[in-house]
């Protein structure tokens, strides 16, 4: 909306404030946030536990670099490592998802001494030169080439294709346990296990990018837990600080021990650390991943019952939901926002993506279902 912003692409809704699963525009209109914030607010907007923790920390000490022990950073590390699968006992904080994946790839290369990165078609890992090299879409890459090299792409979800390329020269296999940006693509059962077996055999690092799938969204704290597969490096960001800019990688000891020099000035700053500690502990203690599982099932059941044959497919897990439409997703997202005050996201040309805060209730879920029914099902309006 700003005259000076040449990147973001404005939407005609000026946001004034947020509370729980709702956003309010400057004219006081209430919107259900069904994905507007890209999964960055799992606990809902301006959650009191996070707000209070951040306020207290910002006035106590806003910043001191990570070579000085600070309680909020110690608490954030402890909470994150306790919340990640067993075996991922060390961690490093950064500022975003792309930076977490940059670190993941650098750590994997230095720990293995190899350079080849295996990534999947339709992947999204971020937009800095290294993460971008492992991202699929040419549109994001071409104008910026040459990017970091030695990346080989294989079709997502195909175990045999993975077996063909993962070898002794492979530093890392990087995968989203469910692809987000690429269209909410759920791999077939056994795919992540195969990736684990192949990387074990070749001594390569298995990197799971949980930037979008993590923080309770799929009904477990991390999507890899649903598949029972623990990677060597797990990257996270988006919801990690409930809206504050922070990312992290959690790693196995062999990765930490083999990691060459890497750091960032703002790594684990006291304020974002306070947000991480509050977010992770609230999510875990209050059982929000279980709620995501239940409400996600409810939402998908209702969507399937009412949208039926008017959509091609509804897929995902928990509150990471993709609806494959028979028409353009951009237009449906616009109608949802302008006519029904529901904010959702496209993921590709025909997939509508629902990523509401995990605190969404049945009432809000019903509002999403009713609105989509009116938009997608012919004559629905006259029936209701
Ligand atoms: C959003 C996203 C990223 C990039 O995160 P940024 O914080 O925007 O850099 C990386 N991987 C996945 C799976 C994402 O969804």
Distinct ligands: pyridoxal-5'-phosphate
Count of β-strands = 15
Estimated share of beta-strand residues: 15-25%
Sum up the overall morphology in one term. globular
Radius of gyration: 21 Å
The termini sit apart by 36 Å
CATH structural class of the largest domain: Alpha Beta
Order of helices and strands: EEEHHEHEHHEHEHEHEEHHHEEHEEEHH
Helix content: 25-40%
Reading side by side through the largest sheet, how are the strands ordered? 4-10-9-8-7-5-6
| Secondary-structure-derived class | alpha/beta
Low-confidence stretches: none
| Total domain count | 2
| CATH homologous superfamily title of the largest domain | Type I PLP-dependent aspartate aminotransferase-like (Major domain)
Corresponding CATH architecture of the largest domain = 3-Layer(aba) Sandwich
What value does the average pLDDT take? 96
- Tally of individual helices: 14
CATH topology of the largest domain: Aspartate Aminotransferase, domain 2
Biggest sheet, in brief?
7 strands, mixed
């Amino acid at each position: 909306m700003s005259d000076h912003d040449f990147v973001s692409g404005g939407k005609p809704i000026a946001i004034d404030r947020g509370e729980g699963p709702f956003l309010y525009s400057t004219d006081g209109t209430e919107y259900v946030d069904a994905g507007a914030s890209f999964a960055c607010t799992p606990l809902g907007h301006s959650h009191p536990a996070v707000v209070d923790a951040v306020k207290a920390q910002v006035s106590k000490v806003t910043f001191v670099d990570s070579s000085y022990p600070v309680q909020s950073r110690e608490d954030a590390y402890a909470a994150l490592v306790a919340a990640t699968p067993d075996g991922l006992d060390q961690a490093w904080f950064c500022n975003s998802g792309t930076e977490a994946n940059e670190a993941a790839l650098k750590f994997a290369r230095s720990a293995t001494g190899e350079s080849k990165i295996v990534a999947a078609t339709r992947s999204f890992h971020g937009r800095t030169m290294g993460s971008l090299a492992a991202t699929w879409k040419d549109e994001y890459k071409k104008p910026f080439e040459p990017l970091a090299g030695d990346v080989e792409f294989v079709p997502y979800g195909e175990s045999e294709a993975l077996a063909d390329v993962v070898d002794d020269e492979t530093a890392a296999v990087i995968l989203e346990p469910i692809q987000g940006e690429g269209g909410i693509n759920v791999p077939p059962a056994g795919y992540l296990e195969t990736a684990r077996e192949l990387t074990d055999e070749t001594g390569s690092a298995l990197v799971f990018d949980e930037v979008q799938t993590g923080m309770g969204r799929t009904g477990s704290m991390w999507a890899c837990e649903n598949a029972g597969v623990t990677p060597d490096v797990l990257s996270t960001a988006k919801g990690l600080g409930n809206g504050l800019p922070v990312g992290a990688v959690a790693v196995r000891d062999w990765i930490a021990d083999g990691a060459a020099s890497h750091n960032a000035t703002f790594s684990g700053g006291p304020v974002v650390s306070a947000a991480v500690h509050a977010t992770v502990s609230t999510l875990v203690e209050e059982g929000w991943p279980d709620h995501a599982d239940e409400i996600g099932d409810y939402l998908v059941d209702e969507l399937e019952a009412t949208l039926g044959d008017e959509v091609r497919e509804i897929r995902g897990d928990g509150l990471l939901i993709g609806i494959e439409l028979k028409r353009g997703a951009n237009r449906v997202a616009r109608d949802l926002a302008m006519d029904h005050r529901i904010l959702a996201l496209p993921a590709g040309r025909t997939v509508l993506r629902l990523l509401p805060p995990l605190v969404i209730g049945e009432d809000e879920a019903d509002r999403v279902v009713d609105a989509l029914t009116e938009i997608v099902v012919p004559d629905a309006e006259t029936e209701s």
